Amino acid sequence: MKLAFLGPPGTFGEEAAIRYAPQAERLPCPSHAAVAAAVEAGLAGEGIVAIENSLNGSVAETLDILVHETRLQIKAELVLPIEHYLLAKPGVRTGDVRLIYSHPQPLGQCRKYLEANFPDAQLEAALSTASAVELAVARGDGAAAIGTARAGEIYGAEVLARGIQDADNNVTRFLVLGHEGPPPSGRDRTSIAFTFARDLPGSLASVVDVFAAAGINLFKIESRPTREVFGEYVFLIDFAGHKDDELGRAVLEKVRAVCAELKVFGSYPRWQ
Prior knowledge:
The protein is α/β, with parallel strands linked by helices. The protein has helices spanning 12-20, 32-40, 60-69, 104-109, 111-117, 129-139, 149-155, 203-214, 246-258; strands at 2-6, 25-29, 46-53, 57-58, 73-81, 85-88, 99-102, 122-125, 143-147, 158-162, 171-178, 188-195, 218-225, 233-240, 261-269. The protein has three domains: 2-81 and 170-178, 3-Layer(aba) Sandwich (D-Maltodextrin-Binding Protein, domain 2); 85-162, D-Maltodextrin-Binding Protein, domain 2 (3-Layer(aba) Sandwich), CATH 3.40.190.10; 188-269, Alpha-Beta Plaits (2-Layer Sandwich).
């Protein structure tokens, strides 16, 4: 099996891919959208994407891909502990750093550290943590990057500081995308998105009440813009159970009856 991930090698996406399927052939992709596209095109059997960080919240890019851009199903989830390193070309000292590269997620996860230690440094977004390390090493004097220890080894960077994330319990949840989801395991999570025909008081409550009446726990509720009309939103819910369970099917039928559109991203075994 070939497994697509956000590359290049040295990213947390690669680390998650290795943990999920150590023997799989890995296909690096330049974005999460490219990961999904690779699976849809048959270039990879599955793809792994970041969906949520314990410090920085949901990954908007991935949510929008699931809502607007793909019909792939979520097959599994993986929770990965995240430790960020400050890396630079050998010879660059901490006091020399005036520019710091990284993916937007790590920049947010290390905000307090950066404000305390590099208040005047320019922060520049990169496509991935590995790309950030490559950029910093290529630039040399005055540049550093937030990335993984593996990225530092790959690109010959020196560690200036380790464990710079704003909390020690920093973790990221990854999703595995594929063409078909797994059968019920007895301890599953189902992810859905839905919209309403009209913006009326109590619309969202009508959906939440369906789950409450069925005794189903909701793990997460959030929203994303519809991309059609300003001020209109797609609502997303993660709930306990499987879409193919008797209770899951019944609840989804009731939710579909009160919504304009319902999209089921998939049901998959919970990591914890």
